[in-house]
Amino acid sequence: MASATARAIAALISKDLRLLMRDRGAVFLTFAWPLVLASFFGALGPGFGAQLDDGDADRAAAMTVLIVDEDHSRASEALVAELDADPRVTLAPAELDTARERVRTGEHPAYVHIAAGFGAAPSVLEPTAASPAPGRAVELGVDPRRRSEAELLTNATQLAAWRALARGLPNADATAPIEAVEIEFQTVHAAVRGPVARPPSPYAVTFPQGIIWAVLACAATFAVSLVEERKRGTLLRLAVAPVSRLTILAGKAGACLVAIVVMQITLVLAAVIGFGVRPQSVGLLALALACTALGFVGVMTLLAVLGRRTHSAAGMSWAILMGMAMLGGGMLPLFLMPSWLQVAANASPVAWALIAIEGAVWRGSSLAEIAPACAGLLALGGVSLGVGARAVREL
Amino acid sequence: MPDRRGPRTPVDLGANVSLHAAMAYTARPVLELVDLRKSHGRTLALDGVSLRVGAGEIVGLLGPNGAGKSTLVSCTAGLLAADHGEVRLAFSGGVSGSPRDPAVRRQIGLAPQALALYDELSGAENLRFFAGLQGCAGPQLRARVDAALEFVGLSERREDRVKTYSGGMARRLNLAAALVHDPALLLLDEPTVGVDPQSRAHLLSNIEQLRAQGKAVLYTTHYMEEAQRICDRVAIIDHGQLLAVDRLDALLAGHAGKPQLVVEFEGERESIETDDPLATLNELAQGRAPLGFRVERPTLEQVFLQLTGRSLRE
Ligand SMILES: Nc1ncnc2c1ncn2[C@@H]1O[C@H](COP(=O)(O)OP(=O)(O)OP(=O)(O)O)[C@@H](O)[C@H]1O
Ligand SMILES: [Mg+2]
């Protein structure tokens, strides 16, 4: 009996997947389109996020860096003045502990620490007989994952240090390719999240979005499948077969799950192999993707049951899923939304999926941080599946 | 009107319906419908239908559009719950009960009136799916699919998508999908509707083969010629009521009147009902030479006309 049910489910799954593969429109929508979207918007470059982001426009132009000057010498003050003059950097003074804490919490992207004794140490222009002197050094506190910020700040600091030295020199060539100061990187593992976190690469943003799209498209495609079966007449044959309604639903859910997982794997592989996206945690990513898949399979099942009688009800499935996507940041990255909408978006399962997936890919979230989103998705899937299964006394 | 509502009084059902004969025909009914009633909203689609179908028997259900044929099939298959009455199924091997029971369902093969196939799948894929749904697997499944395709003559087109099939081929596959799991009872709802003569002949001979295999077949149609050709017994249904259930010859004898002798003479034609056409022809031919003659055997059309007062074809 159990094996007959298992066979029936296997038959249902393979039939639905075959039908999906032969429906060119559905294949395009679920497989090709997310790939195209993710690649295209990713290719628009690193500016993609910043340009759309008017609320953050000034920060995109100038990064606000905390400056800790413990030397208070002429040399340190000259360096600070030159760094502040750089259009890419805006300085905000702070104490060292505060600065470290703020970078760690992700409130600021980096700090520059000029320790006492900076001015007293010999500069690169003051050759000393006692050869390799310790020289002048500053400490940059930055999260190494924020490579572009670290690079920008390194360049800006070198340039500022050189200019500060050149001030005192007649006819100095301000572009001389000399390392004016030694830079010591202080690694700060920032708990970056929310609006402050910046993705390392545009593809790291667009591929999670592509995955969400694929999941929604799969769910929407399968949500209309019961009403499609009714239209074809094949629902009659399903209904006279010696299988329960639940088995038929399980077949639909299974097929949808397989389609979603295959699509997720395809997109992740494309992102990793083709576009150099490096998920920060493969384990968490797998968890996030699994929870997303299960959550939306549940939603699909409920929608399929509700929409099994009429096509208009089935069409509603699209509307509901797209609404979730719009609100949840599936169309526009969450970090680009105005803050009030980001709050409202927390109600959308699409946002939970994004929190979990982006958390694993580039936000550096911990398990504890994505757990609520994952739990929400699983609960949603379970509840929808349960309600759908109860509602379907007859097909 | 005689009481057709149940098996209470097997005798004395009047000339109109020889229910006794109908019920007594099968020693071991596979399907037994007892006083089925079913309404669709305000439409009374079935109004007290009782019927038996035995193993190795084809029972034709003949009626005009909207008579309630498909509703009867749906109730029998367990797709619709009857408002009143009972569907009893009993198969060899002790499987019996209502069509809601999965073990009973496995013995039912339904060919719905509307084609129920996946256009984007091939014929073989369709059958594999339906057989898998019935719990078949492995070599048994393959053998069943091959046999079913062979049976309906679609082996050569097995790997082609159904959307490339002609109407007749799709009908044949619709039948194959009903019998791929080797059920004991076949419910065929207008299996020949809208097909070419070639496919029709194929389908009819298929159904006769099924009878030879010992299957019970309930065959729904509004083509009298088909019912007349292949059915062991014919049930005539109109407005949800069974007006008559009997062997074909008994129906014809009871309701269609006598054979009609049509004789043509110079400038005139005579047509006479007679039990003995030869003797009547002899009488008529006394003294004048007929140019030609023919005997028209009674048809189900006349049975229907007599029972309902209207023609089945209208
Ligand atoms: N789902 C339904 N809702 C409402 N009325 C229905 C429904 N199905 C059938 N009917 C009505 O019930 C009656 C019997 O319909 P049914 O389909 O059983 O007839 P049929 O004999 O199969 O006709 P046909 O030869 O056209 O297939 C008809 O009057 C029909 O209009
Ligand atoms: Mg019908």
Automatic annotation (TrEMBL), chain A:
Subcellular location: Cell membrane
Top-rank taxon, per record: Bacteria
Molecular-function GO terms, alphabetical: ABC-type transporter activity
A Pfam family: ABC2_membrane_3
Keyword Nucleotidyltransferase appears in the UniProt entry: no
Cellular component annotations (GO), alphabetically ordered: plasma membrane
Domain ABC-2 type transporter transmembrane: 27-388
Main location: membrane
InterPro entries xrefs: ABC-2_transporter_component, ABC2_TM
Membrane protein topology class: Multi-pass membrane protein
Identification of the protein by name: ABC-2 family transporter protein
TrEMBL record, chain B:
InterPro entries: AAA+_ATPase, ABC_transporter-like_ATP-bd, ABC_transporter-like_CS, P-loop_NTPase
Boundaries of every ABC transporter domain copy: 31-264
Pfam family, one: ABC_tran
EC number(s) per entry: 3.6.3.-
Keywords for the protein's UniProt record, in alphabetical order: ATP-binding, Hydrolase, Nucleotide-binding
Gene Ontology terms, MF aspect: ATP binding; ATP hydrolysis activity
Main EC class the enzyme belongs to: hydrolase
Coiled coil: none
PROSITE patterns, per the entry: ABC_TRANSPORTER_1, ABC_TRANSPORTER_2
Domain of life: Bacteria
Name assigned to this protein: Daunorubicin/doxorubicin resistance ATP-binding protein DrrA
The encoding gene: drrA_3
